[in-house]
Design goal:
This protein has a 5-stranded parallel β-sheet with strand order 2-1-3-4-5. 25% of the residues lie in helices and 32% in strands. It is built from 6 helices and 15 strands.
Length: 283
């Protein structure tokens, strides 16, 4: 049985990324709109951890303290607070008073994952099954077109397939840049005219999640991240049905250079610009 994570948030539309992240951990999520509703759920369901969204400003601080205390008494050591940005002094005081681990909403992949992992993973008997997509095209492995002697590209395009799913991905990294942009699109192999919108996509490095994205109306998604040796993507194509996409090594984002070809290209460029060419003197 999948462990359950209780998400306490009064704005369901803002919980999408949290639900996606919980799903990538092989967990079932349960949503509560208030602490009172959460306490009722805790009384009848087995919950592994709870995520409590704390407001930037509380209209009734005393009431909030009382509700949080009641939650922590009934569910000790299993609550993680979520804040919008750096906590306000009042929220910081609350977190400090009850020693609540916390994570910022804009850093869910980096901060929430390890905290939730420590609560949930020891209780996991099994993770969700993940299919691995097959790489069918890598532009870096393709021969250059006839007549092209040298190509320096900052974009690497990859195409993956997994049963009825096709994933088109492009990695872009300007020269000497420390950041990489990933642009992708999900398509149904047999029905490409039907868009795959609203699909969760999780980007991970070897250290853990880097971000979560939801595909747009035409199945597109995008990430920007600090350069990594390699990354992976997890795509939830249907409920609890995830596809894993593994990138090739990304240390080099350009084709290998040939010094002789570079010299020839430089000579060609000089000739096109009308620059004089040096001739070799005869002995």
């Amino acid at each position: 049985m999948k462990p359950s994570v209780l998400i306490i948030c009064d704005r369901a539309t803002e919980c999408q990324n949290i639900r996606v992240l919980v799903g990538t951990m092989g967990c079932r999520w349960v949503l509560a709109s208030s602490i009172e509703e959460a306490l009722a759920i805790l009384s009848r369901e087995r919950i592994s951890a709870a995520l409590l969204e704390l407001p930037g400003a509380a209209s009734d601080p005393d009431r909030m303290h009382e509700s949080v205390r009641e939650l922590l008494v009934q569910f000790p050591g299993r609550v993680i607070a979520l804040t919008h940005g750096v906590p306000t002094p009042a929220i910081s005081e609350l977190i400090s008073e009850y020693s609540i681990p916390w994570a910022q909403r804009d850093r869910l992949a980096m901060d929430l994952w390890p905290r939730l992992e420590s609560m949930v993973y020891p209780q996991l008997d099994m993770r969700r099954f993940t299919r691995v997509a097959r790489l069918v095209l890598d532009t870096f492995l393709q021969p250059l077109p006839p007549g092209i002697r040298y190509s320096r590209l900052d974009t690497r395009q990859l195409v993956y397939e997994a049963e009825s799913l096709t994933v088109d991905i492009a990695f872009e990294r300007p020269p000497d840049s420390t950041r990489t942009t990933l642009l992708g699109q999900l398509m149904r192999t047999n029905e490409p005219q039907i868009p795959m919108n609203g699909i969760p996509v999780v980007l991970k490095s070897r250290k853990g999640p880097l971000g979560v994205s939801i595909t747009n109306d035409v199945g597109e998604f995008a990430f920007e991240f600090q350069n990594e040796p390699s990354v992976s993507l997890e795509v939830e194509i249907s409920t609890n049905d995830w596809v894993l996409i593994l990138s090739p090594p990304l240390e080099r984002m350009e084709r290998a250079e040939d010094p002789l070809i570079n010299e020839m290209n430089s000579a060609d460029a000089s000739a096109m610009m009308g620059a004089p060419c040096k001739e070799k003197r005869k002995a």
